[in-house]
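Archive entry. Fields below.
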Amino acid sequence: MTTETRPDYEQEWRENLEKVGIVRRMLSGRKWFGVDWWLVAISAVMVLAFIIIGIFPGWFAPYSPDIPVGPGFLAPGASPALPVLVSLSTSGITELSDLETPSGAPRPEVGVVKGVPTAQALNEQARELNSQLSGTGKELRPRIVRFDTLEEALQGVVDGTVLAAVVQSNEYEAVAGDFPTVVEGKSVTGGTASQGGFILGTNRIGQDVFSRLIWGTRIALIVGFSASLVALFLGVPIGLFAGFVGGKLDRFIGVIMDSLYSFPGLILAIAITAVLGPSVLNVIVAIAVLYIPTYYRIVRGQTLSVKEETYIEAARSIGARRREILTKYIYPNVIPSVAIIFSVNVADAILTGAGLSFLGLGLPPDIADWGIDIAQGRLVIQSAWWLITFPGLAIMMVVLAFTMMGEGLMEIFNPKLRER
Amino acid sequence: MDDVLYSIRNLDVRYATRFGDVLAVEDVSLDIRRGEILGLVGESGCGKSTLGKAIMRLIRTPGRIAGGELWFDGNDLMTYSDKQMRDVRGGEIGMVFQDPMTSLNPVQRVVEHLTETIRTHEPKVSDLAATARAEELVEKLGIRRERLDDYPHQLSGGMRQRVMISLALALHTKLLIADEPTTSLDVIVEAKFLDLLRELRDEFDLTILMITHNIGVVAEVADRVAVMYAGRMAEVGDVYSVFANPKHPYTTGLLSSVPNIDLAEHDLYKMEGSPPNLLRPPTGCPFHPRCPKAMEVCARELPVFREVADGQSTACWLYNEAEVSNG
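PREDICTED_STRUCTURE:
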């Protein structure tokens, strides 16, 4: 008989627990089955959050993950340079439309700095506004005056050589203190400097790192869950069957599973994806094959022990068929341990999936995936730390959440597995 | 109608091990009569439970029924197919196991156990009808029908054992094999349980084979008693005759080893030695190394199991003197 060695002490705290209120129970819950309940609670919240993000990435991601939305290599929190209008505080000019003049009047002169793309932005915006004004008797046709440096341009504004200037916002901010009479107006392209920031920066081609992170959650979860589910749906029946039937068949399956298990996991996955070619489905297949033995082993072991229980003998004594014994008696008693390792397994599969795409195998390169992002960011690690840091953190958090939840549940539901 | 419900003839059960076959049951013949409660007693490991399982052909590999005949109600069970055997199990022969804590499926409600048993054997019965039958049955056994929706862990040991009986009786069981049904129950529950068994025997026309190592239980409920030793039948007889006048020295020893409040002042009899290794049983009578009355012939040859008094059979050279002198 598998009598617990500590029923007295367990009984005692169970009874003590009955006496206190729900809040106290949760707080003294450290004692519940020896697991820190808050560990499970936190991880459950994290898992839930990741799942919601994975299902609805559009709700959280400010930009599309695929198209360049800003300048490349923008650091986290840094604003992209905007072409802003600067003028004397007394002039009252804050936006481009303030430069309107009656048709035929002298054109206002606006300064720009050579070699900076503000002139083009100014030209384009002015032409568009001008076309809207046709027929109203007004026009917006600033004359562009080019300066060699930013300081010269600003001095031009102060001196009145030009009415205003269009400069890069970030460069202007650095020298703004030297020109107290000059004020910053609005961006000529619309929007202000504070808007349009990329909180985690941008990558080489100007995609938003944060948006890619959000969308990467989806692919990570798809790979993790699908691979684990496929492994579960194959491994559990095989384990049940092998454990129940036993004999030569069991030994045969056992040898196959053990050889799969003993093979270095990532290398096997690499080999499979290399053969199958890059696609999400193939990554799922490769990882699933990797984890079949995990389920097989757990389920077979449990089946072997459940098979010897008296209630199986009792089932046989009432004339139950073998199939019934397997489905109604053994299976329901085996499945809880599977549910617990599933969570840990998802975490593992996500890690392996990220590893595969980091190596450039498996996922097509146009997919927003953490592994791919890290692989690309790796090349510029010295200048753009944020490119690998955030996807790396994301992987860590997801894996941590799932593992913690799995381990916590395992300790709560199955104390016997604790020493596994 | 035949007086004998179940007849075991020269049954051999062997377990294959790395060191050779273990003779768990050897050359056992036993008749179970209709309507009786037959107590089967013996030390641990003497083959009682194996015999009980063999009666239902529930011996699993590495064990096997190596020889002998099993006649149930005039039918040769050894010729039955697996399908026919399943119909017999639970249908005509029911079994109650030693540990009620582990003999119910922990993830099934009590009612599911019962309806499943009924529907295994009578697939046409609807779930509702099966539930109704289950309710009726458990009420007869003294379990409130509300408890049917409970899971096994919510029931007490005595209740679970009653549920086990109701499972065994769910159909029209003729023979109930109770394998140490009271071992894990406390004495009060045990006494109630034994009363229940007797009532059920009368109400359901049951025949009960009570496997136990508790002589007191046998004395309490059994009509006849069979004593096994080292896989062989040592003595079979009417419970009063056997207890009053045991023939086999092993039975004598067993009876004097029973703790008794009256005997508190006396030392309990302790039998010498321990049961033999069934992998290599001693030559001759398996009991001779421990037997206080062993003779020279005992070590050499196996005594024949035969009737030595009215309704009392034993396998012992003490009662085979004629043959001894002849041989």
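CURATOR_NOTE: Chain B touches chain A at residues 56, 58, 86-91, 94-95, 97-99, 102-108, 116-117, 120-121, 164, 167-168, 170 (CB under 8 Å).
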